Amino acid sequence: MDVETVQAIKAHVAIHVRDVAASIDFYKKLFGIEPSKVRTGYAKFDVMNPPLNFTLNEDAGAGPGALSHLGIQVRSTADVLAVRRSWQEKGLVPRDEMQTECCYALQDKAWVRDPDGNEWEVFAVLKDQLPEKAATQASCCGPNCCAPAAS
Q: Which sign does the torsion angle of CA 85, 87, 88, 94 carry?
């Protein structure tokens, strides 16, 4: 599969917020929709117009404009691998996180970091709406934070 055939589903933007509940209230008004997923310290808005996977990750120390990471959601693991190969061919150095439980979903993903330290991921959701676990990290959804799924 070559990268020209990969169709992105939507862009992904994840931000750090000091108070998830207050941010949920704000973004419900901004987007005009309810969040599609809410867990302790986490919320996801699945915005249809414009297509956007927007997540809030609670971090009590977050400052103004605290970006967590950016990403591109694709349809399949094959698409993740195609994008990763393309990045490698262009001289980027991706990091893999396959079969990873992240953002209360099972995902396959690859990451790259830009020269300013901004993290970008390409990912496919394999299974969504996983239950919250007792030992959940406050801000689970970022580069190198996720644990491989139990086999």
A: negative
DSSP class of residue 65 equals: T
Contacts of 147 (CB under 8 A, 6+ apart): 100, 101
Helix (H, G, I), strand (E, B) or coil at 80: helix
For the full predicted model, state whether its pTM sits above 0.90.
no
Residue 45 burial (CB count, 10 A):
20
Q: Which fold has domain 3-148?
A: 2,3-Dihydroxybiphenyl 1,2-Dioxygenase; domain 1 (3.10.180)
Instruction: Write out pLDDT tens, residues 76-124.
Output: 999 999 999 999 999 999 999 999 998 888 999 999 998 778 899 999 9
d(Cα 119, Cα 99) in Å, to the nearest integer?
A: 19
Where are the domains positioned within the chain? 3-148
